[in-house]
Amino acid sequence: MQGAAEAHARTADGVIRREVKPVTDRRHRVVFNPAGLEALAEEGETVLNVAQRSGVDLDSVCGGRGVCGRCQFAPTSGDFAKWSLSSTITSLNRPTEAETRYHGRRPLSEDSRLGCQARVRGPLVIDVPPESQVHAPIVRKEIALKELTLDSASVLRVVHLDLSQVKEALRTEKLLEALDEAWQIVPIEVRPEVEQALAGSDAEMYESFTLHLRRKENGEVLHSVRYGTSVENLGVAIDIGSTTVAGHLLDLGDGEILASEGAMNLQIRLGEDLMSRVSYVMMNSQGGSQLKELARESVLSLIQKLGASAECDLSNITEIVLVGNPIMHHSFLGFDVVPLGQMPFDLATDEAVEISAEEVGIPIPAASVYFAPCIAGHVGADSAAALLSEKTHQTTSRQLLVDIGTNAEIMFKGAGGVVAASSPTGPAFEGAQITHGQRATVGAIERVRIDRDTFEPSFKVIGCESWSNEPAFNFGQADSLITGICGSGIIEVVGEMYLSGLVGKDGTILDNRQRTRRVIPNDRTFSYVLCEQSDDSAAPNIVITQNDIRAIQLAKAALRAGIDLLLERCGESHADEIRLAGAFGAQIDPLYAMVLGLIPDCQVGQVRGVGNAAGSGAVRMLLSLKERIEVEALVRDVQRVETATEPRFQELFVGAMAFPHATASTPNLADAVALPSHPLTSAYTSTRPRRRGRRKDAVNE
């Protein structure tokens, strides 16, 4: 364990910090992706052993005998400037006999190794695929469509034609005549691929041809030709998130969803958040190319996963629609992302981009890629898609649409139209910077309640339907550990601590040690013990510290200040309805979002999660050319607000630090829940606990 402790350490605020120290001849640095976690391995130590003692999520059930195949990983070769090391195939031993004779249910690919058999011989960077992770990420992204008319950009038309007696030079002309006669369609353009398909003797063997036509505003383009009758017309819609990519495979003929899948964004190995990836590009000459390739690899891998899930031939894909934030947009398309990391955050283009799939590394000749337009430097195509999905621009009410993530996108429809801004919330809502924070995986606490009299908690854990105070609850044993707390759980535990009087309005954890054993001293502050692990478990207790509360305050204040800024810009004091978008927004209880002051006061019934609105918007653009035209028009009309240059932002930020807010009234929230009465302390940044007398007065006031 000593080697791992020297290689990485988790600080009090939950951030994993790397400590580069001299390595002896008998130890080697090992980096595990996608976590980016570093460890020191003894010469000849197995990768599985290094992973297990270092807290890396690598599965194994056969006791290291090389028969279960669950500990598979992919070694990576190359120079990695981020970690200042070079990884080669000689950093591992040769494949063992157990690996060569392994024939389990999950085949061992040519580029993969078994962690229990591979021994470390030098510096190493490895990828742990989702299939090998004990707690593989749960990508909670759903799709919802409303009142959509099928109007795909790609359509198929079959014509009957005998080309056996027609000269090659006249075949395209004859094909066009048949198309006009059968379908009354005269294309405005014929792609070169069509003439290539009609040349030679192969075309003479068929008496029917399936024509792939791509529709434009001014007519159809004859895009490609299939021999015979082949009417399977498929499309893919993908939301490229900074952490995950989520996609849907659809039949463009009838709009049926054939498969939905999600996966991790491979770019995470270059940085946990967007700005760290931009920094990586700035500091490494090949960084931009690496970012591009990882984005494209993520998309291609997901498309292949969708095809396998639906058991479909990928060559029948004709349309691919992509949405994502500006950095995902620019990196995938090969634009420079550096301008997005510094003022004035200029986009390379704010227009929709249409390009062949092969040009962006997707080997499907007939497919075209449509990347939706971005709104501003930090409000991307995913936000435009969310607007389209919710039809925010068409509503007559004052609607607030918020996509909460590492960088929150905020859009508000007022009397003067739609205004949009982004706010740098950071990764706290996703579990980063939180002592026991983690992503939403099995074993993570996702919901919390605290008894107002005893301060005892009850909670729900992903992977179990029961609450912790119910007999059927089965987590906490050695074989089913509670591993941490995810974003929705963090929001609820902080909200519950405030409502129960454990936390003051200014965010200070109060000294309630005389009333509950759950409050414990932590240096000059206090912490709350949310979950006590069993004695036979090696897992630590799950606690909420003062630093955790501060991290949530900073994140929520940045979001709320951005919202308040837009409302002020529109001359409005409140929103009639609030929509929380994204995988995280869909899991937040609207009541607790208001308790913390993430969002302004509103009737609780008018606040709801809308799931992956960006993904739904992408599907709308996949199924309808009209929707593409609509999104391009609405983006041009959106008014942009740059929070980084607004003088009022900092003032609004300070007021938003308090729970729920320092000055804003909350009549709707007060009707929904009993709010405590806490005096607001003079300094938000104070970390010293209050004296017991003042604390008692504050609670009982």
Oligomer: single chain
Query: Domains counted in the coordinates: how many?
Result: 5
The CATH topology of the largest domain corresponds to: Nucleotidyltransferase, domain 5
How many β strands by DSSP? 31
What is the percent of helical residues? 25-40%
Question: What does this 3D model show about the protein?
Answer:
It is a single chain. The protein has 18 helices and 31 strands. By secondary structure, it is α/β, with parallel strands linked by helices. The protein has five domains: 2-132, Beta-grasp domain (Ubiquitin-like (UB roll)), CATH 3.10.20; 154-227; 234-378, Domain of unknown function (DUF4445) (Nucleotidyltransferase, domain 5, 2-Layer Sandwich), CATH 3.30.420.480; 384-426 and 552-672, Nucleotidyltransferase, domain 5; 436-544, no CATH class. The strands form eight sheets. The protein has a six-stranded mixed sheet with strand order 16-15-14-17-19-18, with helices on both faces. Strands 30-29-20-21-22-31 form a six-stranded mixed sheet, sandwiched between helices. Strands 4-3-9-5-8 form a five-stranded mixed sheet. The protein is globular and about 95 Å long. The two termini are 50 Å apart.
